[in-house]
C-alpha cells in the first residue's frame, strides 16, 4: 500500500501531513486518518472529470462519518482543459468557499487549500 | 434454465415453483397463480415484499440452480399476497440489474450515512417498499450496509435504492457538523499567520 507522509513546521507547531490513496479498498485508512485530524484536504484532478463521481462518493462517506474541517483542492489548473473550482463545488454539492483551485507543481499555489482550510476554521 | 426464461413458460400455470441447489442460499419457492407471483417463501417461510424482490434478483443472477414445478400447489397461508404480474416482475428485475451495473461507479459507498426527511412518500412501488421497511432507520440515519443487514436486501440493491431516493430528494447524506471550538480557532489563527509569513500570503492559483 502506498501512503504519503510529511511534516510542515509552522511557527512553534509541527504539522503531520498524511496522504492516502482514494481507492475504496483503502477506506479503512481514511477513517483512521480522519479521526482526530485537524483537517482534511481532498484533491481532485480538474482535468479528469471521470473521477468526480468517485470524489463525491469519498467526500460523502467521510463527511457523514467524521466531523472534520475540510476543503477540496481542484488540481491541474495550469492545463488548458480543466474544470474550475465553482463547477466542481456544484458537482460535489459543496459551498463554493470549500473548493479551491490549485496547481500542485507551484508551491505558492499548492498552499492555497491549507490557507483556505485555516481561514474557514477562524 | 435461467429464471428469466423459466417464468414466462409458467405464465399460464398455477402452482409452486421450487428452486434449490442455489449457490450458498436456501431453497426458494414461488407460488404462481393466474400469471402472478402470489407468495415467495425461503425455506418454507414467507418473506416480505422487499425481500421477495431481492430474492428474485438474486435467483436471476445465479448461474446454477435446480427447479421443480408442482402444479396446483398453493401456500397454506400468505400474510401479504404479492399479486405481482410475472412479466412486469421480470422486466423490473432485469432493468434494475442493468441499472445497478451501469451506475456501479455512482452508487454511494456502503458505509455512507443517509437520513430521510420527515414524512416522505414515493409513487415508485420498489422504492415505496424499501422506504416502508427502512423509514425508521433512515429517520435516525443509516448506511446501505446497515439497512441491507436490517432489511435483508442485497447490498448493491440497497445502495441503488438510496441513490434513487437521493436523486428524488427523499434522503440526503448526513453531514456531521464541526463544533465551534475556541481552541482550534486560536490554533488556526496562529498557523495561518505562520503559513502566510512563510509563503507570502500564498500565490495566485
Task: Describe what this molecule looks like in 3D.
The complex is a heterodimer of chains A (122) and B (205). Chain A has helices at residues 27-34, 52-65, 85-92, 107-110, 112-121; strands at residues 4-10, 13-19, 40-45, 70-75, 99-101. Chain A is of the alpha/beta class. In chain B, strands 1, 2, 3, 4, 5 and 6 form a 6-stranded antiparallel beta sheet that branches. In chain B, helix 5 (144-151) crosses helix 6 (155-167). Helices cover 45% and strands 19% of the residues of chain B. Chain B has helices at residues 3-9, 49-61, 86-103, 125-140, 144-151, 155-167, 182-199; strands at residues 15-20, 28-33, 36-42, 45-46, 66-71, 84-85, 113-116, 142-143, 171-173. Chain B is an alpha+beta fold and 205 residues long. In chain B, strand 1 and strand 2 form a beta hairpin. Chain B contains 7 helices and 9 strands; from the N terminus they run H-E-E-E-E-H-E-E-H-E-H-E-H-H-E-H. The chains are: A alpha/beta (122), B alpha+beta (205). The A-B interface holds A 10-13, 15, 24, 27, 38, 53-54, 57-58, 60-61, 63-69, 77, 100-103, 106-109, 111-112, 114-115, 118-119, 121-122 and B 105-109, 111-114, 143, 173-179, 184-185, 187-196, 198-200, 202-205.
